[in-house]
């Protein structure tokens, strides 16, 4: 009596047994075995490659490990479509070595260029302890010389209590006589225009030291202007 074979023995049978049984199991049959948990995913991928020359793609591997595959709702049509999505990509199988490239070295090379030795300055074979030639020491010496000369070298300061001529905060005293002359002109303009009467105008003149007499020319002008009122002007 012949011994019955399970799915694993049929898929991975020896050459002599394959010749006796005939054709190997089809892709659909292998898929059905995997869905019934008779074949693991690694054995399924190996059987596809050995028996039919089909490489299990990453999309198909993700589909076999999905929830639909675990619940039995994954169809063979969906599996075939996943096999055709990325046939050129290598299969996502466990145990395959990962290849890592040194990306940090490439980034540093692109940014900084090829490595070069540091620049040698002066006598690099002997250590120096003299810092008198350093830039910060020279700057300090120059600052000391400028302070010794005194401040305001470009704008000399005259030792005096007199304020600056161009200082806008200093009160300027107007020349003598200017303010009185302006007031006299204003009063005369007001008298001529009728804003100031004769008595007020004569009083203002007397207060400013101008004595009006009968033979004074200014008095004659005031009298003649009094005769001609502004409202009588043409």
Descriptive report:
This protein is an all-alpha fold and 234 residues long. Among the domains are: 7-83, no CATH class; 178-232, no CATH class. The protein is built from 12 helices and no strands. α3 (27-35) runs antiparallel to α4 (41-52) and α5 packs antiparallel against α7 (76-83). The radius of gyration is 58 Å and the shape is elongated.
Q: From the helix content, strand content and strand pairing, which structural class follows?
A: mainly alpha
Low confidence ranges: none
Helix count?
12
Sequence of secondary-structure elements: HHHHHHHHHHHH
What's the pLDDT, averaged over the residues? Answer: 74
Overall body shape? elongated
Strand fraction equals under 5%
Beta strands, count: 0
Question: How much helix, percentage-wise, in residues?
Answer: 40-55%
Q: Biggest β-sheet, characterized?
A: none
- What distance lies between the first and last C-alpha atoms, to the nearest angstrom? 156 Å
Q: State Rg.
A: 58 Å
Quick summary of this structure?
It is built from twelve helices and no strands. It has 234 residues and is mainly alpha-helical.
Properties at a glance:
single chain, 234 residues, mainly alpha, 49% helix, 0% strand
Fold topology:
Elements: H1 7-11, H2 15-21, H3 27-35, H4 41-52, H5 58-64, H6 67-71, H7 76-83, H8 103-112, H9 135-149, H10 178-193, H11 198-207, H12 217-227
Helix pairs in contact: 3-4, 5-7, 10-11
